[in-house]
Here is the input.
Amino acid sequence: MFRIRRVYDDVTPMNKEAIAQVQNILRQQFPALSKHEIADLPRQLRNPLKYRFRSILFIAEGPARRIGGFALLLHEPILRFCYIDFISTARHRTGGGIGSALYERVRTEALNLNAIGLFFECLPDNPKLSHNPEIRKRNAERLRFFERHGAFPIVNTAYETPLKPGEDNPPYLLFDDLGQDIQLERDIAREIVRAILERKYANVCPPEYIDMVVESFQDDPVQLRKPRYWKRPAVPAARYIPADQRIALLVNDKHAIHHVQEQGYVEAPVRIDSILAEIDGTGLFQRFAPHRFSEKHIKAVHNSKFVDYLKKVCASLQPNESVYPYVFPLRNAARPPTELPIRAGYYCIDTFTPLNRNVYPAAKRAVDCALTAAEKILEGYRLSYALIRPPGHHAERHSFGGFCYFNSAAIAAEYLSKYGKIAIVDIDYHHGNGQQNIFYERSDVLTISIHGQPRFAFPYFSGFKAEKGIGAGKNYNMNIPLPEIVDSKRYRRALESAVKRVKRFRPDFLVVALGLDTARSDPTGTWSLEPEDFEANGGMLGSLNLPTVVIQEGGYDSHILGINARNFFTGLWSGTFK
Ligand SMILES: [Zn+2]
Here is the structure.
């Protein structure tokens, strides 16, 4: 079994390894390629401007992450065409359907990119152009393969003119209209052919050769060769969201055990259900079961005595027993109260975040979801979403509060920071004091939060503009406090400045602490974002085009919560993939 997945970058160890294997296949299967061209592949994925094509790499990955084949697709958004630079299976894997699966994946991608069609080269089956019968036979097999999938050589042009007279095997140019029934107009074809030759082969094709080939396109519309090897019509390309473009979804299956029954406790289980109900039907998500991670990941960002305390106190409580902190030992920090329930205030920032028997297991499971979401990004997913409660962004290194116990976003960020630089953007209505506190002295994790000015909004003691980080972390914390009344436009401006700061930082990963309490009618907020704003804001974050983990934080109006979440992810997805 193998799966086709897109490789977006050369940052994670898995992707680096995949690219190295692709380079090996290139070396084996395309001996004419220069060392330099092969070595350049990672840069080609990173820099669409230099190569004047957007490069998209797909791999067929088998057991033990062995690569059975790959396709490198070039996308030209202005002329709206795609060009297959390479499609190849590894030497030990001929046949077996990998080539077909890769080609079909490429067709779907081209269709989703609104391309008029796919272009690529294939060596000729004409004895006048291909003299060696062995090679000619192989060429014919490849042409048969492409015919079966709906691609045919363009005829009546001089495309297959050897660069040097007498050179063997000058390639045909093939066209696949993806089943769209497109008659390729001459003038468009000329522009496309010029783009291919000038951008791909500028160093081998002299300008007069390119002019000659372009001029040779006379038929209008361009004519394709009649099927020679395959009589049945090809299957049209399918437009769907391929598995590797879906958002990996992790839902805290233990969230419901954490249910504080007190009146007015808005952080309730219904929040998860109302989000799930709305996002389920979108087809954007691929659900996974969370893995279990060791506590060391929690202790990497939280004080270990605090973590041990939380575990111990929860286990010591009776079912239905709740502890609310009521003594805050600020005067003597060296003397935490001995009685476990009384000690709660030693680690808590407020009086409304209770402890009970289920807090620890529920919060631990939320962390497992966040870490699995991060792991999915390392495995090659571009987007992942930990739909969890209890939330986490108010939990600091030494403390819990604001309905939060462990800071799942910070724990996921810490985990990913072993592989590259992280930007955390907190878009909850309330300040992300937890991430700020945890990463305040670090320059490899940029923390940004847009929130209600702490003069009037929880947590009241942090989130001020002047808090910018200290030591190595100076200028790596950015607070954007906003007034009590904020509309779409005002919010958009704030998010724009956050996005600008992220771009300047050039991170390898993005973590979004997604609070939906910025919505109109949220019982804990004062702003008035509408459902369409969530889509636009998701789109802005998506346009950063970074591997992104989204962690659910606040948002308490269960009537609109799901719709806003759905809109946010629709925007994020479109911003990322379009
Ligand atoms: Zn909030």
Observations:
- The pocket of zinc ion is lined by residues 428-430, 515, 517, 524, 553-554 (CB under 6 Å).
- The longest helix spans residues 359-378.
- The chain has a mean pLDDT of 94.
